[in-house]
Amino acid sequence: MDCARIGLLSTTQHSPMTPQLTTRLPAVGTTVFTRMSQLAAQAGAVNLGQGFPDFGCERSLISAVNDAMLADFNQYPMMSGAPVLRQAIGTKIGALYGHAYNVDSEITVTAGATQALTTAILCCVHPGDEVIVIEPVYDSYVPAITLAGGVPVAVEMEVTATGYAVPWSKVAAAVNRKTRLIIINTPHNPTSTVLRAADLQALSDIVRGTEMLILSDEVYEHMVYEGHRHESVSRYPALAERAFVVSSFGKTYHVTGWKIGYVAAPAALMAEFRKVHQYNVFSVNTPMQHGIASYMADPTPYLDLPAFYQRKRDLFRDGLKKSRFELLPADGTYFQCVRYDKISTQTEAAFAEWLTTEIKVAAIPVSAFYQQGKESGIVRFCFAKQDNTLALALERLATV
Ligand code: PMP
Ligand code: GLN
């Protein structure tokens, strides 16, 4: 396009008249997921980096959304979400986790989990408040805490021969008068750790008698393997009474690009959440809400998800056993972490780039999930892929 002719500036030109901004997020660049996906595309690599399925969703889900559009569900929905969808979410949480959220005052539909997480942080973290995050930490939490003027306090998971674990005694030691919020994530991205009842008990012991709130990121709630139970915070009344619980339809229904999720919280917390939500997105697109609500009438798709992904996980793990990568446990999510110290001494970022450009399989360096970029010699692969995609990746990974 001839930008000069139509009076526009190209994206690389800067007008001397444009006022300078002081960044609110000095530490933020383009996310590792975007960068590795771009590199994978340039290199023609199999993209096991950014977490998204390379297969479609069920056609009946698409039909349900189309039907909603044709039925003229196309104007603003209620700010908190279409009642039918809030009802479907409430019914699901009740059936699976035994907590009866009030669907009018305690559930809000969001534009994906990222928006839910940021909105929850903005509504309860004030300047100077401390927020405990568990490292490795999902990339959106710390920038949201920073935007709110909060202070992230990282507690590192322990990495042992048998995998990652949350050291609750260190979490307890990090709590002080300024601690306002703790953010947990189960099943956990990137380590695939699934918190157990004992972990939730340890968390209860820490928050009891304090003013601390909990933000529980449960977007992989339906991806738990080996018969493990998803320990939703909503199962535990003593935790649920002070928690925002977040999930995402993108993960559950193989539609990461739809950007639709939800948050459940006690009415007093939700009232504050909605004050921010109302002037941030106001509401989430109507036909998808109606389409998803009718699709949710059948619980089979999410009840079948553990078996669906466990098969892929096992296929991927069995293949990797023939390589020089060392497998870490993967009890949940659609990620598999591996050690590569028998293959290379490179940093994780350099190794992931080399794998992408030379071996043609993209991965994510786990160091990107640490504020100080801790090196553990571990990268993350996503196995939410068609079997033939996994087979091609495994063939290549066996050569290193
Ligand atoms: N939390 C975690 C742990 C995630 O892995 C992701 C996305 N992969 C999100 C939140 C964001 O979900 P959404 O795409 O619905 O915003
Ligand atoms: N959550 C996805 C992952 O961990 C990426 C989502 C994104 O690109 N923002 O790979």
Structure, described:
This protein has 15 helices and 15 strands. A hairpin with a 2-residue loop joins strand 5 (158-160) and strand 6. It has 400 residues and is an alpha/beta fold. Strands 2-10-9-8-7-3-4 form a 7-stranded mixed sheet, sandwiched between helices. Strands 11-12-15-14 form a 4-stranded antiparallel sheet. Helix 13 packs parallel to helix 15 (387-397). It has helices at 32-43, 59-70, 83-97, 112-124, 141-147, 168-174, 197-207, 237-240, 249-252, 267-278, 286-295, 300-303, 305-320, 348-359, 387-397; strands at 46-47, 107-110, 130-135, 151-156, 158-160, 163-165, 179-185, 213-217, 243-248, 261-264, 326-327, 335-339, 361-362, 364-365, 378-382. The protein has 2 domains: 32-51 and 303-397, Aspartate Aminotransferase, domain 1, CATH 3.90.1150.10; 59-297, 3-Layer(aba) Sandwich (Aspartate Aminotransferase, domain 2). The N and C termini lie far apart (44 Å). Helix content is 38%, strand content 16%. The model is unreliable at 1-11 (pLDDT under 50). Residues 51, 112-114, 138, 185, 189, 217, 219, 248, 250, 256, 259, 261 line the site of 4'-deoxy-4'-aminopyridoxal-5'-phosphate.
